[in-house]
């Protein structure tokens, strides 16, 4: 039995007329009648009762009709699924996030993919440092990454999402919490809470800013991630210089202050340059549009 036999059979069953079914199938009526007789012979049971006035399904034919529709629907679903996969519109994409990018960019990414690619599921890998994300892109553990450059190696492609200023996080009762303006030099005598990893891009940027202000930061505590780091600040154990996206993590007892001379850190969307997956390309197209920098209100008014 072939799929075409099931299609022929359902056409006759739907119309109860060999001539009309043949027209629907764009084939000659004798050829259709022959195919149905072949199917009946293969199954060993009559599927239709035929008279000069009427064609009706037998009980065996009624059973086969339900099964044939189920099989044909499954085949059609499979064909549509294959085409959507080939078009990059169905599947699972694994995305890594570094630090606060999960709070600032994950909601936008999830919404954009859900809106434009409803057949694509996003698997989130959070709190990954840039080196670990690059390794994940290379070994296939990740498809895309939101990381802080630089990314080592020429096989990683980058699309800049934004350049974030570094800001100050201090305990609510700290002397700098009420100052109208704060500079890096004001932190000379402070104890710092920093990220625990030696590969932290933020730590490196903070070190450069402090050295430019004429001192080296005195690190008193370390934290594996931003949430714990801010909890230590709230506990009065020191101050921290963090990306501006940390404001997305409001915490009682922590006050954020701008630092005009603290420098910036970059955030970028990354993928393996030789990744030719249609799915990854489709998601990239959606995200590059959804995460494009938005014009400021003053620019819009102009």
UniProtKB/TrEMBL annotation:
Entry keyword annotation includes Nuclease: no
Record domain HTH lysR-type: where: 1-58
Entry keyword Isomerase: no
Transmembrane feature ranges: none
SUPFAM superfamilies the UniProt entry points to: Periplasmic binding protein-like II, Winged helix' DNA-binding domain
Keywords: DNA-binding, Transcription, Transcription regulation
InterPro entries referenced in this protein's UniProt entry, alphabetically: LysR_HTH_N, LysR_subst-bd, WH-like_DNA-bd_sf, WH_DNA-bd_sf
Domain of life: Bacteria
Record family assignment: Belongs to the LysR transcriptional regulatory family.
Listed name of the protein: LysR substrate-binding domain-containing protein
Organism: Amycolatopsis thermalba
